[in-house]
Backbone:
């Protein structure tokens, strides 16, 4: 019998294949907190590394405000937690009016474990019209621990 060992593939970035939106030009961002060493730009802009990290524990919100309504077809999001075992929950919402009415896209929990489950990468195909606000809410540890929320990458198309 012939056999061949092939290396496993480790994704280091979000999936290619789209012209990602230039969030630096199209959006204003609101955040509940930010570690100075891990600013939000590191998660939202191409070519940046290290991702965003909250300044303290607890629920955190990242809100993208678009100057002009957009159509979104794809949302790619990546979280990385190599150290702390925890269960994180995130909620992704969008709004057309940006003020009162938000629609939930996804609510999901993920169990991070340093022995293997250190990365969560999600790729959502959506068809959202007239988006003025996209909001990501992160509960870094649903058991109420002292974990800090973080976001490795967020890309929109």
Residues:
């Amino acid at each position: 019998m012939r056999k061949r060992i092939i290396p496993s593939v480790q994704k280091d970035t979000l999936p290619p294949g789209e012209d990602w939106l230039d969030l630096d030009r199209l959006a204003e961002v609101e955040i509940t907190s930010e570690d100075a060493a891990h600013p939000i730009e590191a998660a939202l802009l191409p070519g940046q590394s290290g991702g965003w990290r909250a300044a303290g524990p607890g629920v955190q919100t990242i809100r993208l405000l678009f100057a002009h309504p957009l159509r979104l077809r794809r949302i790619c999001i990546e979280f990385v937690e190599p150290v702390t075992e925890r269960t994180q929950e995130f909620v992704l919402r969008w709004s057309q009016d940006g003020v009162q009415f938000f629609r939930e896209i996804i609510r999901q929990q993920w169990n991070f474990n340093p022995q293997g489950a250190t990365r969560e990468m999600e790729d959502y195909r959506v068809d959202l019209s007239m988006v003025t606000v996209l909001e990501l809410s992160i509960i870094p540890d649903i058991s109420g621990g002292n974990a800090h929320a973080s976001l490795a990458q967020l890309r929109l198309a």
Summary: Residues 99 and 139 are 22 Å apart (CA to CA). Residues 32-156 form a domain with the Jelly Rolls fold (CATH 2.60.120.260). The mean pLDDT is 91. The chain has one domain: 32-156.
